Amino acid sequence: MLKESDFQPFTFENIHIPEAYLRAYPKDHSEYSLVTILSWKHYSPCRFAVYKDHLVIECLNQGEQSVYAPVGIPDKEVFCDTVFYAKSSGASYHLYDESDVRMFQDCFPEIPVEEVRGYFEYCWNTKTLAKLPGRRFVGIRGQINQFRWRYSYTTEPVAPENLEEVRSLIHAWYAEKTPAEGSAVSDELKAADISLDHFSALHLEGLLMRVEGAPAAVSIWENRNSDVCLVHYEKGLAAYPGIYKVINQETAKLLSGRCRVLNREGDMDEAGLREAKMRYHPEFFIKAYNVTFDRKTSCFS
Q1: Which pLDDT score, from 0 to 100, does residue 226 have?
Q2: CA–CA distance, 271 with 293 (Å, rounded to integer)
Q3: CB-based contacts of 269, cutoff 8 Å, min separation 6
Q4: What is the pLDDT of residues 140-192, one digit of tens each?
Q5: pTM above 0.90, yes or no
Q6: Which of 45, 48, 60, 116 is in the most buried spot, having the most CB atoms within 10 Å?
Q7: pLDDT at position 246, please?
Q8: Which domain holds residue 25?
Q9: Backbone dihedral region for residue 94 (phi beyond 0: left; psi -120 to 50: alpha; all else: beta)
Q10: What is residue 104's predicted lDDT score, i.e. its pLDDT?
C-alpha cells in the first residue's frame, strides 16, 4: 500500500524523476505542471511518490491536504490505492482528467464527485485567438486597433539577454497593485521570480513587448505537449490601455503554428478575472473535480 514515507518534496535537484512521468503521460491541467508545482511551493508545497511505476502527487494548500489521481498507464489497483491513501490521510482527492473521473466513478459509484469551477482552465484554438474572427470579437479587435493607432510597439522572445528586464517589468506591474488586492498578488510575484530564476530548467518560453522601446508587457508559457501550450504569466503596465489584449493576440500569433490549443489557466473564482476570460468566449474547459470523504462511507469501512 502507498505510505506517507514514500513521498519526497519536489526540488530542482530531483525534477527529472516526476518530469519523466509527466512527459510520458502528459496531463493538460496546470496543477500537473512542474512550473506550477515548483514556482508556487511557498504557497502550496507539494510532494511526490513513485508507486508501482506511477507518479503520485500530494499538496498542502492553506492547511488542506490533497492527493492527485496518479500519472501513468491506467491501472485500477494503483488508482484505488491512491484513493485509500487520501482517505486514510484525511486528504481530499483531486481529479483533473475526465478519464480519471470515469475511473473514480466506476470504482466508487456511491461517492459524489464535485466540480470545482474556480479551477476550470480556459482553452481556445490558438488560431482563434490569433485572428479574433467574427462579430463576437469585434469589441476586442476595436481596442487592439486603438492601441496600435496610439502606440508604436515591438515584440521579441524572452531570452537570457532580456530576462532581467522581464523581471523588472513584472515588479513594476506588482508596484501598481493596491494593498486591497492582498497577499495573492505578492504570492504571484514570488512565483514569477522563481520561474524566472529557473527559466531554462522549467522549459519556459516567453514574449516581451516593448512600447516606444521600453518593456511594457510579457507573456510566459510552456509547451505541455505537442498539442497544448499553457500560459502561466501575462503581465502589462496599466499606463497602456488595451495592452493585455495586444500581448494576448501577439502570443497566439506566435504559437499558432506550434500548438493547436492555448490553455490560459483558471480564474480562481475571481469575478473580474472570470468576466475578462469569458469575454473571449472560451471554446472548452479543462475541468477540475474534488472528492471529500465521509468517514462513514461504506466502501471504506
Answers
A1: 82
A2: 29
A3: 117, 118
A4: 999 999 999 999 999 999 999 999 999 999 999 999 987 656 678 899 999 99
A5: yes
A6: 48
A7: 98
A8: 4-119+288-300
A9: beta
A10: 98
The sign one gets for the Cα dihedral 176, 179, 180, 181 is: positive
C-alpha cell belonging to residue 269: 473564482
- Are residues 154 and 112 both part of a single domain? no
State whether 258 and 292 are in the same domain.
Answer: no
Question: Hunting for cell 496518479 — which residue is that?
Answer: 70
% of the chain with per-residue pLDDT over 70: 96
Asked if residue 23 and residue 131 are part of one domain, the reply reads: no
Question: What pLDDT score does 184 carry?
Answer: 81
